[in-house]
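Extended Data, panel c. Modelled sequence:
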Amino acid sequence: MTGRRIRITQDAALSGALAADTLLPTPVGMTALSDIAPGATVFGAEGDQVPVLRVSEIHERPCFQVEFSTGDRIVADAEQEWYTETRDPSRASIGPRRRTTAELAELPTASLAVRVAPAAHIATKRLPVAPYLLGAWLAIGTETSASVALRGARREVIRQLRAQGVGIFASTSDDLHWLGLSGDQPRRNGHLGNQLAQLGVVAERHLPMTYLRAGDDQRRELLAGLLESSAEVSDGGEVVLRALNPALGAGVHQLLASLGYRPWLRYRSPEETAVGFVTSERAFADEALHHQHQRRRRLFPDVRPRRLVVAVHPVAARPVRRIQVGAEDGILLVGPAFVPMPGAATRSTVVDALKPVSGRPLLPPRVTAAGRTTTR
């Protein structure tokens, strides 16, 4: 599609609003829209960090809840715009279109989808425990007053940890491998145990926000530790982590979304969740798991991941707020699933977005969120 950029007199009013309690990913964590102020930083369509220019007062309006095939839900007013495209492969050449929530509610939802955002770009941080080690321990670790260990560790995990300088002390009577850092003694809780306790992950296993907002490669290492320790491949080719407590499951879901994947989160019981995703990338360093994944996976490299819209229905009126960001396309990422959505726009911004220049798509193409193991 070609066109020319035009601009008309700017209207000071903003259009489109999200529920005020909507969570927005920021470089330091998740922040409710009601707590966002101009000058704050959020994520744009390409995973870059963009400033918040304006927010409206909070006021109450009738709303709709939009539900996706992954289970994610977003509440917005009738004027909020969405970038949607057809889910029909035969019409894949038709680019994304802006539609309001009210328009979505009148269309057959089975025909609509929203693209998955690429990985969020965040600077590398200094972390107390190596990301891969933390991921492995959260997946299969044990901790007592006397030791830190992994139970049933796969050979690839042991190899990776040893390559990173972690001391591994194998048990001769069971499937435990005791872990230690420099200066730790076998079967004794030393530096590593203290660091895990200070992170708060011993009392309740979860992904600390410091790690969820670590650098791109650090987050991939964290995911690799989790996947290579306990992930399985479903019959349909999904990579699945099971038997996670709700806090850890929610963290893994957000971690995957921040890396450009399309995760789902399911609550098996009040104490147990499962998280899964589909990818054409290499998910396992272990050769047996890698080949199993390659045989079963159904997503091909040239298929762009999308979230299908499965339901749009009205909900009770509630507090909403408008937000405008300083990105050329006006898009920001919304919710723990990092869903790309147009922010509230002035009239001139809407005209710019509807008149792309030199074939530039309305939504930037997805950037592959290649993980650490993809080069193996």
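The first helix runs from residue 101 to 106. This feature is highlighted in the accompanying rendering.
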